[in-house]
Design a protein that fits this description.
This protein is an alpha/beta fold and 434 residues long. Helix content is 41%, strand content 12%. α3 packs across α4 (104-116), α6 (129-145) packs parallel to α8 (164-180) and α10 packs antiparallel against α13.
Length: 434
């Protein structure tokens, strides 16, 4: 079976304790499973490729022009980050073959998989060609949507985590950016001292910062996974006997890695050779499991993104005061995107959940695909002293339900700062150990 890399994708004020309303206007989504059922890329969640499907932007209030952009972007499409995605599936299929426990579909999967897995395993974690393309397009769209910000020159600082895929993503973005904003003086770096801002999870202990605050965990991920997974239905398609699972570490990790593979292989491989492995019902269940897993694993780390929030506020205020920087671009990971959107309650994702089944109505991991990005776009007027801003989530105008909008997606920067300062006061830094 021939596998080729996909080169392009179709463009197809504040209280110390935050309490958010449960109304749809504050971010609740009722048709989420219908969305997942109708879109393979959404069903892939955080493993899905970037979707260039944002609606046209709302014009700014009269007289207001953009002058500065603050950005955080996840790395683009990559090979699986964990070698287990490839090795666990290989081990299970080999054990099943040795036990003569493969169905006809299982035998075909074994053959296809043995032809497939070695190159992805060697490239584990690396940015794919599609990932570079995504960031180049995101930079182009930014420059074309907001030409006023960059047309007269100035500086832009781009910083990446020390991960190879984040650095290469930054490179793809900045090369494209320079093409469309040639007057900008561009600075780039990937320093470990940046990590509290761009990848707090990987910060060296000498610079790590941690903050007070906990988030409710309604149910363990493993318990939720066990009661949601249709093991019998899935295994009946592939195996005639399952006793060999006891010798190779059980069934749970195999299904987890098989769904990860299904969700992510289109980031670096054409073909549909895995598309019949899961039924529609199984896909919905596995998506909900992974969605819950990412909510628990990522958004409960929200308060450790306060350095990123501080960074955004500090540099935005410098730009407002006439500084020479027209943009600050940061490149990192889905763990940070998911935690940060919960920190600032973007589109209601800061709502704390008390029941595992309700997570999907407030948080959807398909809004953090490969190359997911958050952009704060700032506006000023010659006739109005107020500074306005809006937040774009993957190019789509987003909401901050805790604030009163001025007009559509536009908010007062002063209101956001007041809210953010109360948040940070309620969650002070814990002294890091050395």
């Amino acid at each position: 079976m021939k596998h080729t890399r996909r080169l392009i994708i179709s463009i197809a004020c504040a209280a110390a304790a935050l309490v958010f309303s449960s109304s749809p206007l504050n971010g609740q989504v009722y048709d989420v499973l219908d969305q997942v059922a109708s879109s393979r890329d959404k069903a892939a969640g955080v493993e899905g490729p970037y979707r260039f499907d944002a609606a046209p932007l709302t014009p700014a209030p009269k007289g207001f022009k953009p002058f500065y952009i603050s950005h955080y972007g996840r790395h683009g499409s990559r090979y699986a980050w964990n070698p287990n995605t490839y090795t666990k599936i290989k081990d299970v299929l080999e054990a099943a073959k040795k036990a003569d426990a493969l169905t006809p579909r299982g035998k075909q999967l074994y053959k296809d998989y043995m032809d497939f897995y070695l190159i992805p395993l060697v490239n584990m974690g690396d940015l794919s060609e599609l990932g570079g393309y995504q960031h180049g397009e995101i930079a182009r769209i930014m420059c074309e949507e907001f030409p006023e910000v960059f047309k007269d020159g100035g500086k832009v600082l781009a910083r990446a985590s020390t991960s190879q895929r984040a650095i290469v993503s930054m490179n793809a973005f900045t090369v494209s950016f320079q093409k469309y904003a040639p007057k900008i003086d561009l600075e780039v770096n990937s320093l470990h001292t940046n990590l509290p801002v761009v990848n707090s999870n990987g910060s060296p202990k000498e610079v790590a910062r941690r903050f007070e605050g906990t988030v409710n965990v309604p149910e363990s991920t493993n318990d939720f996974r066990e009661r949601m997974t249709d093991y019998d239905g899935l295994f009946a398609k592939l195996f005639t006997d399952r006793s060999f699972f006891e010798e190779i570490g059980g069934r749970r990790n195999f299904v987890y890695e098989l769904f990860n593979l299904w969700a992510g292989y289109h980031n670096y491989c054409d073909g549909d050779w895995l598309e019949d492995i899961f039924t529609k019902e199984q896909i919905l269940a596995q998506w909900e499991i992974e969605n819950y897993s990412h909510y628990i694993g990522h958004t409960r780390n929200r308060y450790n993104q306060i350095p990123l929030l501080e960074d955004i506020i500090t540099y935005a205020d410098e730009a407002i005061d006439g500084g020479e920087y027209k943009g600050h671009f940061r490149f990192g990971h889905d763990t940070i995107v998911n935690a940060f959107i919960a920190l600032i309650n973007l589109d209601g994702t800061g709502h704390e959940i008390t029941k595992a089944e309700d997570v999907k109505y407030w948080y959807q991991n398909f809004y953090t695909p490969m190359a997911a990005n958050i952009q704060f776009v700032f506006y000023r007027s010659k006739k109005d002293p107020e500074i306005l801003f809006k937040v774009l989530r993957n190019g789509q105008e987003a909401t901050l339900p805790q604030l009163e909008a001025v007009d559509g997606p536009y908010y007062r920067w002063a209101d956001f700062k007041t809210w953010a300062q109360a948040l940070m006061k309620a969650h002070p830094q814990i002294t890091a150990s050395r």
